[in-house]
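User: Just a sanity check before I run the rest of the batch. Below are the structure tokens for the first item. I only need the designed sequence back.
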């Protein structure tokens, strides 16, 4: 009984703290104006993913991107990898049938022998070029708190490469989360959601 009461008290006191922290995070996302995009960690292609993410963010006209970290409200940090590789698949099938028959007789008569042999071999080798990209990013405020994070992967789209697709997915996720934060803030203030 005491354990249950302890858990209940913990839940009652921790939920408001979580809600306050969530509201502060949402407010920071909504009030950010200048974003500095830090160099990404990862492989040699991380810089390309970073540049595509900057381009995708800039196209939204949502925030002002800056090259000076000291002028920014938040810093976008992360890592990315863009891989191009070949997958090889090999298979081989064999089917062989052998039949022999023989007859023997006396020394004056000859030998009779019959035989059937059939075989089929089939093999295939397929090399498939693959292109995968992934990125994990986070927005960090001036105090060092992570206010937003996302991870996306892509094997490319019909009309775009994997890196560009990952950048677009990350920006779409940020826009969705900002809309959710805006909606939540409006509900708390009792205003209609725009």
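Assistant: Here's the designed sequence for the first item:
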């Amino acid at each position: 009984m005491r354990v249950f009461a302890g858990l209940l008290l913990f839940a009652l006191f921790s939920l408001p703290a979580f809600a306050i922290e969530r509201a502060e995070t949402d407010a920071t996302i909504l009030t950010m104006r200048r974003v500095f995009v830090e160099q990404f960690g990862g492989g040699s292609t991380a810089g390309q993913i970073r540049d595509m993410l900057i381009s995708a963010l800039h196209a939204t006209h949502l925030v002002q991107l800056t090259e000076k970290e000291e002028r920014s409200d938040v810093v976008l940090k992360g890592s990315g990898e863009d891989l191009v590789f070949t997958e090889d698949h090999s298979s081989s099938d064999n089917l062989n049938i052998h039949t022999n028959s023989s007859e023997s007789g006396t020394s004056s008569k000859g030998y009779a022998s019959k035989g059937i042999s059939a075989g089929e071999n089939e093999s295939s080798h397929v090399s498939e070029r693959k292109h995968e990209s992934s990125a994990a990013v986070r927005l960090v405020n001036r105090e060092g708190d992570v206010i937003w994070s996302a991870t996306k992967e892509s094997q490319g789209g019909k009309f775009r490469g994997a890196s560009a697709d990952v950048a677009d997915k990350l920006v779409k996720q940020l826009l969705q989360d900002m809309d959710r934060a805006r909606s939540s803030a409006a509900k708390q203030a009792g205003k209609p959601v725009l």
